[in-house]
Design brief:
This protein has 2 domains: 168 residues, Alpha-Beta Complex (Nucleoside Triphosphate Pyrophosphohydrolase), CATH 3.90.79.10; 154 residues, 3-Layer(aba) Sandwich (Aminopeptidase), CATH 3.40.630.30. Helix content is 32%, strand content 33%. It has 9 helices and 19 strands. Strand 8 and strand 9 form a beta hairpin. It is elongated, with a radius of gyration of 24 Å.
Length: 335
């Protein structure tokens, strides 16, 4: 994992005993806000997480700590590394104390569960709070933290969290400017290799999220390249992409097929929606909705009477909100 920052206070004997405290913390972003722990007793905010128990992986610790502290259920397939923050200082027991905070980005389900707080956390009166990042920094700097107000560990926590928030802004993971930088364009042969990689990532994520084993030994790249190359050439496949600068962060796809006309589709033309995928770091920003709208309009312009999709569990909410209806084993949007 990349090193984001090392705080070395150099107030210790480098040749003495060493104690370590590895911890895992979660970065959960939704609609530009962060899911954080609020200590109602001492009125401060922090990223959720805690120490790694014996035998636990970092990912298992992340899921457990977020569930216990703020009652949110992490979707394991969305966990991805972000970075490491290290602090070195004279320890209370050992000559050198090293605290390692491993940060992971992750998404959570919409359900909020009952917390499972320990004695210390009950005293702190932890609660879930969705905070604007700048407001979190301001509140930590200005609020009255009671008996903790002069504690060095708390002020280090504030410094560390502010550094992390600024890093997230720098990398455009949070901040109001993020949506303004997203642009959209149609897929061309120049982006096809990246598009195919993202299509495979989408299929893999869907398999994992639904508890299915990803088939081994199946190389889809050549087959997908052949399909897209042929159908882009004859106009029966179109895709819109979302970009942050030169980076593709979202994809969509619409295939056009014909069948014998029927009452609700007198043209016989149907759009088959596919390849709806957004980079996990760019989700909940309206990108998928915009991409969906653009390819649906492509189907309308082609003369399709309806758009069909066999929706994954992850996509049902998006399509339902847009106006798709369940029709047997697939979802349909009438044009």
């Amino acid at each position: 994992m990349r090193l984001l920052k090392e705080y070395d206070y150099k107030n210790y004997d480098p040749n003495g005993t060493v104690g370590r405290r590895p911890s895992v913390r979660g970065i959960i972003i939704r609609d530009g806000k962060l899911a954080v722990v609020h200590s109602k007793t001492y009125d401060y905010y922090s990223f959720p997480g805690g120490g790694i128990d014996a035998g636990e992986s970092m990912e298992e610790t992340l899921v457990r700590e977020i569930r216990e502290e703020i009652g949110l259920e992490v979707r394991p397939e969305t966990i991805r590394e972000y970075g490491l923050v290290v602090r070195k200082e004279k320890g209370a027991i050992d000559d050198l104390f090293i605290q390692e905070n491993y940060y992971f980005l992750c998404d959570v389900s919409d359900k909020v569960l009952q917390q499972k707080l320990g004695t210390y956390e009950i005293d702190e009166d932890y609660e879930l709070c969705w905070m604007d990042p700048d407001e979190m920094i301001r509140a930590n700097a200005e609020n009255d933290h009671g008996k903790y107000s002069k504690e060095e560990w708390l002020h280090h926590l504030f410094m560390r969290d502010e550094m992390l928030i600024n890093k997230l802004k720098e990398e455009h993971l949070i901040g109001k400017e993020k949506m303004a930088e997203i642009t959209y364009k149609k897929l061309t042969e120049n982006e096809l290799e990246t598009f195919i990689d993202m299509r495979i990532a989408q299929l893999t994520e869907e398999y994992v999220s639904e508890g299915r084993e990803v088939p081994k030994g199946v190389d889809l790249k050549a087959a997908l390249f052949d399909f897209y190359h042929r159908h882009m050439a004859d106009g029966t496949f179109v895709s819109w992409l979302a970009l942050d600068g030169d980076k593709i962060v979202g994809t969509s796809g619409m295939s056009f097929v014909e069948k014998p006309p029927y009452f609700t589709c007198p043209t016989g033309r149907l759009g088959l929606l596919s390849s709806m995928f957004t980079d996990p770091n760019y989700r909940r920003l309206g990108i998928a909705k915009e991409l969906l709208h653009r390819v649906v309009e492509e189907a309308r312009a082609y003369g399709c009477g309806a758009v069909h999709i066999t929706a994954s569990n992850m996509g049902v909410k998006l399509y339902t909100a847009y106006g798709f209806k369940h029709n047997g084993n697939f979802m349909q949007f009438n044009l």
